[in-house]
Design a protein that fits this description.
- The structure is a homodimer of 234-residue chains.
- With 234 residues, chain A is an alpha+beta fold.
- The first copy, chain A, has 2 domains: 9-133, Alpha-Beta Complex (Nucleoside Triphosphate Pyrophosphohydrolase), CATH 3.90.79.10; 150-231, Winged helix-like DNA-binding domain superfamily/Winged helix DNA-binding domain (Arc Repressor Mutant, subunit A, Orthogonal Bundle), CATH 1.10.10.
- The first copy, chain A, has helices spanning 53-65, 134-151, 165-176, 182-191; strands spanning 7-20, 23-30, 40-41, 44-46, 73-80, 91-99, 115-119, 163-164, 196-203, 211-216.
- The longest helix of chain A is centred in the middle third of the chain and has 18 residues, at 134-151.
- Chain A is elongated and about 65 Å long.
- The mean pLDDT of chain A is 92.
- The A-B interface holds A 3-11, 46-53, 76, 78-79, 81-83, 90, 92, 94, 151, 193-194, 219, 221-225, 231-234 and B 3-11, 46-53, 76, 78-79, 81-83, 90, 92, 94, 151, 193-194, 219, 221-225, 231-234.
- Strand 1 of chain A pairs antiparallel with strand 1 of chain B, so a sheet runs across the interface.
- The structure holds a DNA duplex (27 and 27 nucleotides).
Chain lengths: 234, 234
DNA sequence: GCAAAAGTGTTTTGCTTACACCCATGA
DNA sequence: TCATGGGTGTAAGCAAAACACTTTTGC
């Protein structure tokens, strides 16, 4: 056979999302060496011998950001291997989507010093915001997250252990970039079996009536689904 | 740095689906050499230098099965790289889902002689039906196909250029493994804007009233969606 | 009392289901 | 004429959207 398989290095790139100040934010690393030195990029790194892809994702998340991937929602999105996508040669990238609650930023020690949360800039996205082809990777990861909010309880992964319905609504509003009716949202969420369960406790907002606190339920699929407004309008 | 990135070869594995005799079928290859000689596996092959993943998928589809990937629905599903998944060493596999109409089997020439359609065996699936980890890959690809029938016009990719509503219903029934009410299905499909458009022509079934023929519309998302019966029942 | 956020009730509208019923053909 | 699949009508039930209204806090 004349054609030999090419040898690739395989990188994991992480699109780590959270909600900060009511806005969707992504965890970025300022690159300290070429290629793309000084530019911002998704955190990531190479798969090592004997490592499964999920393991690499957890390890890189810890090394580069200080976050514990075992407690976060973490899922594979897709793989990119367009020739020339990495100036260092034949590097395939397996993209992962991670969802984190609004954590204190510390991420002490190690390489995490270069990590920071940045609001997702929908204008600059796909127009040279991030290094490599990370604009495309982030766009695909965002679309995955948006889609999964509809039929899975993924939104609770953006929240702390306990949360109010208003906080959950803020997640949907930030990720979908829409305004939702608080009254209908409340009824819809509490009507989906296994989505959220009341803890009995309450929390006082700065002003206003105290909100009941909830924790994640055990549903893995939402029924009925939380459909995006205007979803599919031609 | 003590840890070097491992070098991988990257394979594309194809889950090519069609409907044959009212049943969901997958295209399999009987392996002619070790490892897993004599066992059946998904068709596939290695990514070559300078090739994008989609290109490899199209090329392998043509070489191993005689099908033209440029005219088929073809989409990436996910990547598998669990250590030890391939006895030949560090081989990552990028799985693709392909959908074909019920084509005449010829697939003349080349390696396609070893290719054959097999009904999807849901019992043996995940219990050592296919070589490598292809049971898992096929299961994931099937789940992708099942999910996409709900919100995308993917079902038309199983049909020829023109088709009847009954044929389209047979696709949903075969992929979802359910019975659907023909009357309600007809109304639902024709009510989704851009899903199917009437050609004006008709076709006579062996017995019964002639059926109107349709072709694919230009919708990329179905609204309202074709929800799976019982979808999400706890 | 006022502002603000939480939460309930009600109406309208649209989709889904179940099923009765009619249509057009081959044998 | 009968069997068979194609296709329409209709009513019940669930879910979504819009919005009036009440509750409970901090100031």
């Amino acid at each position: 056979m004349p054609h030999q398989p090419t040898a690739f290095r395989i990188a994991i790139d992480l699109a780590v999302l959270t909600i900060r100040d009511g806005h969707l934010a992504v965890l970025l690393i300022e690159r300290g060496q070429p290629p793309f030195e000084g530019r911002v990029a998704l955190p990531g790194g190479f798969v090592r011998a004997g490592e499964d892809l999920d393991d690499t994702a957890v390890r890189e998340l810890s090394e580069e950001t200080g976050l514990d991937g075992r407690t976060l929602h973490l899922e594979q999105v897709r793989t990119y291997a367009t020739p020339g996508r990495d100036p260092r040669g034949a590097v395939a990238s397996v993209a992962y989507l991670a969802i984190a609650p609004d954590l204190p930023m510390p991420m002490a020690g190690t390489d995490a010093a270069r990590a920071r949360w940045e609001p997702v800039d929908h204008d600059r996205l796909s127009h040279g915001w991030l290094a490599f082809d990370h604009d495309i990777i982030l766009r695909d990861a965002l679309e995955r997250a948006r889609a999964k909010l509809e039929y899975s309880p993924l939104a609770t992964a953006f929240c702390a252990e306990t949360f109010t319905i208003g906080e959950l609504r803020a997640v949907y509003e930030a990720v979908w970039q829409v305004r939702l009716d608080p009254r209908n949202f409340h009824r819809k969420v509490t009507g989906v079996s296994g989505f959220v369960v009341p803890t009995g406790a309450q929390r006082n907002p700065p002003t206003g009536r105290p909100a009941a606190l909830y924790r994640r339920g055990n549903a893995t699929l939402l029924h009925p689904a939380m459909l995006r407004p205007d979803n599919g309008r031609q």
